[in-house]
Structure of Alpha-1,4 glucan phosphorylase:
Amino acid sequence: MGPGSCPEKAYRAAAAAAMQQMMERWEATYEHFSKEDPKQCHYLSMEYLLGRGLRNAVGCLGMEGEFGEALKKMGWKLEELATEESDPGLGNGGLGRLAACYLDSMATLDLPGWGYAVRYKFGLFRQVLDAEGRQHERAEPWLEHGNPWEVKRANIRFPIRFGGSVKEGKWVPAQTVMAVAYDMPIPGYKTKNVITLRAWDAEPITADFDMFKFNECEHDAALADFKLAQTLTAVLYPGDIPREGKALRLRQQYMLSSASAQDIVARFEQRAARAGKPPNWDDLSNKVAIQMNDTHPTLAAPELQRILVDEKGLPWDQAFGIMSKCVAYTNHTLLPEALEQWPLDLMEELLPRHVEIIQRIDREFIVKVKAKYSSMPKQELYATLSHMTAMGNFYDEGAPAEPFSAQRAAEKPVVRMANLCIICGFAINGVAQMHSDLCKEMVFTDFAKLWPEKFHNKTNGVTPRRWLAFANPELGAVVTKWLGSDAWIKEAAKLTGLKDKASDPKLQEEWTAVKTARKRELLELLWTSLGDGVKGPAMGDASEWLFDIQIKRMHEYKRQLLNLFGCVHRYNKLKAMSPGDRAKQVRRVTIIGGKAFYSYWAAKECVALCNAIGRVVNNDPEVNGVMRVYFMPNYNVSAAEKLIPAAELSEHISTAGLEASGTSNMKFQMNGCLLIGTLDGANVEIRECVGEENFFLFGTTADKVPGLRAERAAGKFTPSPRFLEIKELFKKGPFGDWSALMSSLEGDSGFGRGDHFLLGYDFPGYIEAQERVEKMYQDKAAWARGSIMSTATSGQFSSDRSIKEYAEDTWKVKPCPVP
């Protein structure tokens, strides 16, 4: 294809060539798995944030040189063609990116495994900003031109049932659609193994189409199943404020859980059939491990129980024993409001058989707890049970006869999904050591006392392939040169070899040159992404600016608002200086990026406030030579692959005790970025690795948060004058009127929990930490050394390490490399 051809067509041709190479390995991988019949892991996640596929495929296949040369002869560059690809709309944030990194590591470590997903047509949304800098949501039609990285498996389809009733223990559904498999190959790095991400689409049962109703012009009734199928896979995380939204989310979760469970069971039966024998169901847990990534796939547990009992005819106790040895659960949140609870009446309406199953599981759990704690005082026992049952607001806790033995008339009984996961699962893990400890000490305390052997930690990780070797190949080349080998790409622990070289002036010079090049590339991207009203004049040479970046989902606990308070503090400070003093300051560009959920008013206000600050600061000739503030719209993996390599300082400033782990902190660290942050999530472990001198710590600790909130609520805490001054400035200053947003920081007004996330308390420490940043940045050798040390100590946070721990400790799955 010649240089005059359409770039999109050239990309399609390049993708097809790479896909052909993967197809051969893909087929060989599962032929080998079929022959060896190893135990396999199955990763169920509501989202996967994959990123573009071409560069990753070519890199993992080890074809960079020959592929690049072939394209060059035809007048194309691999990097240019890769930009023709849309980011797959299968995910949103850290949860989905973690799942993608984990599949990459499973494949690279030759582990037999599968990912399971939903094939959303329009993703979460495409974030666009209006002239005032406010977020609006648009459809993200990533499948508009097809997906060259998927194969439809039309013969792999399973019924997904909803509604109806249960008669004699059998479910008689009111509505049924089919889940159809679309498979995407996940290549391992320089290995022959290619595993599968199986994404489920929904289709109506065409044979059930009611021609009579359609011809009688009852079109809505005739097309009801078609509409349901279209709706099920339209959007990730649809709005759930009205009941209809909750129903759609529950349907989506059940479709993922049911289709995946049916597929897992069907493949187990096929393996037995190939061996010429009936399936030995007691052997299922020796061949299958199911990891539920957060509570979204919780229904996989009762669904597997339903399949074993209702369809395979197993006795209840045998089925529960099998199911409970197959499923494991990863918790990702300490926020009480984020622990999913479904209204019981809604679940009864949509999944009546599953409600019966969950209630029986719960009754038997109650019996076990009562037997375990037979000597415990009754009221203490009942208080304990009230926190642990899967059914919440459901049992009569104060009956004179035997509490927790009958349903009570209560408001809004719910099904508590995390509790159900723990009751059914054989292993429960947090995603950073601090998070796992808090899970046991604060969230699931009674469960941890009952089953301490179930609870363990698996600190998150990120793949060094995509996030260093492919996203930042020039820095990767420097690493390889100074280590004498590229073995670090598969064995990230080898990055520690840079520690002894971190003070070498030649390495620092090469390192800084790469960072400067990445900063220049990011400025080019930023300039094409922003509206003219917020840009300000050209910034000049990027090498003279400190790039300070915070990119993550917009949420109050992640405290983008604290960052914005810091920006205005810096602006006020600069405005008060003489021109001579101002010229001596560190030049800093602050970039914030992230999507706010469409109904999350406070988060969307922070997006708009960032842009309002940017319009003032970036167009102020007194300060725009030393300070800029920008919001990067529509943050996704491809944007991250530009932002992270360019960052010199990254902000991970959540209220202590609320961030489960974080993974963007690991990506920044891996790319030689220093962090400013609180003792929260994986920050704790990162700080231990990089050294206190290379981590700008501030803020309270998790154990003090409840007391500080109580102190604030009692009116005993007064924020610093600087904080109060900025808060008032946000009400009537040059940035506009943000009084409604500021009310969340005042008393108990606003959202009912004034300054719940302790911005006022942590603000002075945050400003002091930023002053330490600027002092160190002026010492170029010290900063370069800290940057190198960040990369050198990042191997601990490779997803290969995480997945190896899951495989060895939880799943008991062994590598099965294709010979």
Notes: The two ends are 35 Å apart (CA to CA).
